[in-house]
Design a protein that fits this description.
24% of the residues lie in helices and 33% in strands. It is α+β, with helices and mostly antiparallel strands and 70 residues long. The protein starts with a strand and ends in a 12-residue tail after the last strand.
């Protein structure tokens, strides 16, 4: 995914790289899962020629939460 940003009045695209914390990996701080995903995505973006990668990380896994709507 790429999005446009303005830099010095010119449009520049970024590549959005999304990482998600696994429910099985709910440790505090940045987990190995997130670090591994970043490495894999960075390599893929570089290989495909995607410029200006920016990481978006969803590390808000909530373990054991049951829906109150049941």
């Amino acid at each position: 995914m790429t999005t446009a940003t303005k830099l010095n009045g010119q449009t520049e695209k970024i590549t959005a790289l999304y990482c998600r914390l696994s429910q099985d990996d709910g440790r505090e701080g940045e987990s190995n899962s997130i670090s591994n995903q970043k490495d894999i995505l960075q390599a893929y973006a570089r290989q495909k020629g995607f410029l200006h990668p920016e990481f978006f990380v969803d590390d808000t896994a909530i373990l054991g939460l049951k829906s109150e709507l049941q």
